[in-house]
Design a protein that fits this description.
Mean pLDDT: 87
Number of helices: 5
Number of strands: 0
Radius of gyration: 17 Å
Largest sheet: none
Low-confidence stretches: none
Order of helices and strands: HHHHH
Length: 140
């Protein structure tokens, strides 16, 4: 897969992270804590939004594009790591205070999100780093 997929395709996959908007919807209905919704929602939406200028920079061979890709990739990776850490923290806090916390992510269909999304997102970011390390990484 790594040999045949382009860097643009690996990056464009992250458009799905616009689903971060659902953190805010769930918060609006008091299903998620404010802080957790902000951490999860803002990072995902920012990562998804930045896909477009990154793809533009790649296609137009803009100067420093490798730096832009690396920076975007680090931002996206740090976002998902912060979501994992904050989910763990808010779960611990909720258990201690006998509150719901992020309990909705334990029920279907929301349980699919923590079950697959973090690992998939981390894998995709690591693939981008790996693709960039290859000697035949073209265009740059």
């Amino acid at each position: 897969m790594l040999e045949n997929i382009t860097i643009e395709q690996l990056i464009f996959i992250h458009v799905f992270r616009f689903v971060g908007i659902f953190f805010f919807f769930l918060n609006y209905y008091h299903v998620l804590p404010n802080s957790f919704a902000a951490i999860g929602g803002v990072g995902d939406i920012l990562t998804a939004l930045l896909v477009f200028p990154i793809i533009y920079a790649i296609k137009n061979k803009i100067k420093f594009v490798k730096l832009y890709i690396k920076t975007w990739n680090i931002i996206g990776l740090l976002d998902i790591i912060s979501v994992i850490i904050s989910a763990t923290y808010f779960t611990k806090l909720a258990i201690e205070n006998k509150e719901d916390g992020v309990v909705q992510f334990g029920s279907f269909p929301f349980s699919w999100i923590p079950a697959f999304a973090p690992a998939t997102i981390i894998f995709l970011h690591l693939l981008i780093f790996k693709k960039m390390k290859k000697k035949n990484f073209r265009r740059f």
